[in-house]
Amino acid sequence: MSKTFYQLYHANLAFSAIEEESLGDVIDKTYFALLYFVQKTKIKVALEISGYSLQKIQELRPSWIELFKTLYSEGLVELVGSGYMQIIAPLVPYKVNIINQQMGIAVYKTILDISPTIAYVNEQVFSKSLVDIYREAGYKALMMEWNNSVAIHKEWQKDYAYTPLYVEGVESKLPLLWTDSILFQQFQRTVHTQQSFQDYFDFFHNYVDELHQCVSIYSSDLEVFNYRPGRFETEAIIEQDEWKNIAKLSVELCNIGEFLLPSEILQKYQSKATISLTNSSHPIIIKKQDKYSLSRWAGCGRDANFINTLCYQYFQQIKKSQDQENWQNLLHFWGSDYRTHTTKKKWQKALDFFEHNLVKISDQKEKNYAETDIKLIHSDNILVFKKGSLEVSFLLKKGLALHSVFKNEKKLPFGTVKHGELSHISHVADFFTGISVIESAQTKKVTDLVKVEEYSFTQQKEELYTISTKIILHDIATLYKSWQIDTQNNTISLTIKLHLKKLIVGSIRLGSFSMLHKNKELFYICKNGGNKDEKYSLKDTKINQQAPKSLLQSSQGGLGLTDNSITFKIEQGEDVRLTIDKEKSFPFVMLEHHQDTRKQLTRLHFSVQELDDTLKENREKLQRDFFVKYTINL
Questions:
Q1: Residues forming a β-bridge with 221
Q2: Which end of the chain is more exposed for a tag (fewer CB within 10 A), N or C?
Q3: What would the pLDDT profile of 232-274 be if each residue is shown by its tens digit?
Q4: pLDDT tens for residues 349-368?
Q5: Helix (H) or strand (E) segment spanning residue 47
């Protein structure tokens, strides 16, 4: 059976490892080379490019724009949408995402007079909400990776790989055209002369099923051919003109199939089947191999927690603004360019921008009150706060961890899960709320589960009370922990400040939350970049997002919580809702869930740093404090 092929080249001049002064060289060696390849071979390709990148091309190499328009008019190239910047959408608020797409489309129309109908999901990082966002922006179809999606859906039919499908959002659906990371990496290796053409075709015929109707030949970076961005020490050496290799390989592929544009593939093939890419264990899908985790944009790089916090603070400052320049600045610094492998020069540019444009948030100091209606009971290990029908207790020998909460004589499901409450051998431990853990090869595992010798109790206003302590974590850090009990609004808040004394090449997780409940139907509800809640059942589900993948990858996944909250909905029980103060700090949140014989253990971990191949030993981390603050509704 003759096959149809499609190629997509991902173009992004906001490439983390490329300095701005090199952009002209990048355009000459790769962007022009792509168009010359199409012009010479007449092989059709798709180009996905951000609005920002188009603006830089217009500024630096305007003749490229004219050549692209010519090839587009001849039906040889197709524009695939990206947004104004390449942003990890499941980690940022809905308003930022929709403005990113709208501004991108406006730039495409202004510079190219084209409104793309297909969007390539940024960095192939997908959440269910993105379908609704792209549809709202005006897109008619999406492109997303097959490999990691099928890995978590063993129930999918085999022929799902062979043709476009429909992908579910929260409230809508769109046609979906697959990309394939294994295929594109094989193509890239062959072009880089790391393997022979014969090796490639042997692989190809073995990998591609006879029933494949359409095959994604390439769907990744444009800037890696005849140029090296400088991300890795092991990048392939340029041994020959790689665009000649691309032309030769593509022409040979034409002997067994035909290259079409993505829009032509969608017109020719379209299954009626509708699928959901995500599930409760993987609400956010990540591209390529296991070394890729959501943490690389949320907790690694030079200091992703810090720049995400600065971006969120600036977003709060401008979110009602009509000034396009304000939004371009926000999108620019929230782009993936300033995470992962960003250069020192780019990092300093971001810090300088926020230093001059961000209105500083000052902590409000409340007046202290005297209160006579409070019972604070101090025993050898337990500190108990009592007021009216509320009783909150803390563990003095375990770093002031939250022990339990009783409201109207009913115990709420969160606090400390004690040894013996669960029966499976892997759950025979204590699981705390409010615990912090630093873990690295150098320091081993360091926690704040120490005896609290001193604490303070203050009242800020009529029904707002604070219990605080300071904990010395060896020679590594000083941790300040503060519990705030609001008896008027029925909330408990935890604030942790960590002052590092040495650089940590590992994970730093502050204030983990633990919840135990009977085996009833349980859901978690949150937003992952969209305007609508995503709801997932935890029934018969095991989730270990916080668990390391390897010695060099400290986590497996995470949540966006892009409206800052998560709700656990318990069958025949009261909901448990947590809200994070992201203006204080923008932590990476990971979910853990385990089934036991008659109970379920659910935990949340709040990370300010994770470990992977992008983590940089940034000396500036020792000049700032790490924070986490969240509130639990009672």
A1: 10
A2: N
A3: 444 556 667 899 999 999 999 999 999 999 999 999 987 889 9
A4: 999 999 999 987 666 665 56
A5: strand 45-49
